[in-house]
Amino acid sequence: MNNLPQVKVGIVAVSRDCFPESLSVNRRKALVKAYADKYGMEGIYECPVCIVESEIHMVQALEDIKKEGCNALCVYLGNFGPEISETLLAKHFDGPSMFIAAAEETQNDLVGGRGDAYCGMLNASYNLKLRNIKAYIPEYPVGTAEECADMIHEFMPIARAIVGLNDLKIISFGPRPLNFLACNAPIKQLYNLGVEIEENSELDLFEAFKKHDGDERIPAKVKEMEDELGEGNMKPEVLPKLAQYELTLLDWVESHKGYRKYVAIAGKCWPAFQTQFGFVPCYVNSRLTGMGIPVSCEVDIYGCLSEFIGTCVSQDAVTLLDINNTVPADMYNESIKDKFHYTHNDTFMGFHCGNTNTKKLSSCSMKYQMIMARTLPEEVTQGTLEGDIIPGDITFYRLQSTADCKLRAYIAQGEVLPVATKSFGGIGVFAIPEMQRFYRHVLLEKNYPHHGAVAFGHFGKALFEVFKYIGVPVEDLNYNQPKSLPYPTENPFA
Questions:
Q1: Which of 27, 67, 311, 379 has a CA positioned 20 to 30 A from the CA of residue 7?
Q2: 74, 128, 162: which is closest to 471 by C-alpha?
């Protein structure tokens, strides 16, 4: 994937000048060694210039990690730490920051070797708040060298998402289809997040597509598609048009991303798209998503933003699905009941026409879009990718702006069950613990649209921290709560 940031974390140790500097020096060295032993040195840099005790040291360390290309920062309290200098370091660093602290090593060295970083973290967090500085602080930020190494490793996907958002441009082709107010949301919050957006007409896209008629790269792109689809290439006649469309989008990205490094696309796919372009774009959308360029359907801007965040966190293809339909009782009784620990109401089907990447489908076929073909000639609805989604762990999530420009998000971990859907499109049988209550008291109560992003794996911990970091209020950061923890709107007598 060439559309994702590479994170390099600069590790800077700090020291209170009335504590032995050697504590921070030795503990920093032990931290870096512990990280290298477990994860390798790729992605981290140990700042050797100084132990930060003063504002002058802060400037020296800042210049060093910038020179080394660090785009994320770890402030490491080897002892109590200088609350002013260490927080100024985070303030002036252009990128995500984390704060962690050293635990005491042994009962045999609690006089000259006691660092009191446990106490110093309190002052650090207090000063961060005073200065309105965002920083990631792990759930328990004080630990041994090995434990702190794990904390830095868990910071990596969070930092990757933050770095990506700070250099992201969303390119949209609209407007949204009629009767699709669900995907409508103010773009003001994109600017607040540091994300650029370029809104275009689908007529602009159509003009660019026509200019790619006869492009000499089309045969090679068709061959790529044939190789990927294999026996699932049920509509070979549409591949040249799809190849032309893919080249159009890739060229548009290159010529329009401007000063931004990363791009996501919110695309138009109906109702006039099929009749004018002569196909549906689902398969091309799936291929770009596999390249690390998420493409949302139906001009869902916050959908593609969510997809991009999940791609950064997971470093893998994601997808965007409708939270679509219930699982029939006979399917549940035959294939799920007594085989999995889910109730019927924990299950549902996630579906979209055909935008899920081939690597995330158990098998796939290039077909026509059945829903659209009910009202249009079948030949203009070709280009959708059908197949059951691979079973395994998933995270269903979404970042959304409300109508009054407030950020809101949800995260729910679950799995795709190894159950044949017996349906069409890109689809899977999903199971999320307490989905019934989550559906009612989060998705419906909080007015979320029907599109949800899906990351393939359990990434709730990192996504939760990303959403907190970018400013989603805790009360609007929702998840599937266990029965023991009622939702505020849940009827206690139900």
A1: 27
A2: 162
Instruction: Identify which of 328, 300, 313 has the alpha carbon closest to the alpha carbon of residue 459.
Output: 313
pLDDT in tens, 380-432: 888 899 999 999 999 999 999 998 899 999 999 999 999 999 999 999 999 99
Band (371; pLDDT cuts 50, 70, 90): confident
Task: State the Cα torsion 86-89-95-101 to the nearest 10°.
Answer: -20
What is the pLDDT confidence band of residue 379, given thresholds at 50, 70 and 90?
Answer: confident
Identify the three-state secondary structure at position 97.
strand
The CA distances from residue 175 to 87, 189, 297, in Å, are 44, 19, 12
Distance from C-alpha of 138 to C-alpha of 124, rounded to nearest angstrom: 13
- Expressed in angstroms, the distance from the first to the final Cα of the chain is 48
The answer to whether the CB of 69 falls within 8 A of the CB of 9 is: no
> Rounded distance, CA 27 to CA 47, Å?
13
Asked whether 271 and 375 are in contact (CB, 8 A), the reply is: no
1 pLDDT higher than 80: no
What sign does the dihedral 218-220-222-228 (CA atoms) show?
negative
**What's the distance, CA 479 to chain centroid?**
16
315: left (phi over 0), alpha (psi -120 to 50) or beta: left
Residue 43 DSSP one-character state: T
By residue count, the chain amounts to 494
Residues 6 or more apart from 314 whose CB is under 8 A from it? Answer: 157, 455, 456, 457, 459
Residues with Cβ < 8 Å from 419, sequence gap 6 or more? Answer: 331, 335, 336, 391, 429
Is pLDDT of 351 > 90? yes
Contact indicator for 268, 299 with CB cutoff of 8 Å: yes
| Among 306, 9, 359, 2, CA closest to 157 | 9
Burial 312-344, CB ≥16 within 10 A → b, else e: bbbebbbbbbbbbeebeeebbeebbeeebebeb
Q: Whole-angstrom Cα distance, residue 81 to residue 58?
A: 12
**Per-residue confidence at 366, pLDDT binned at 50, 70, 90?**
confident
CA gap 278, 272 in Å, rounded:
10
Candidates 487, 413, 398; CA nearest to 448 is: 398
% of the chain beyond a pLDDT of 90: 84
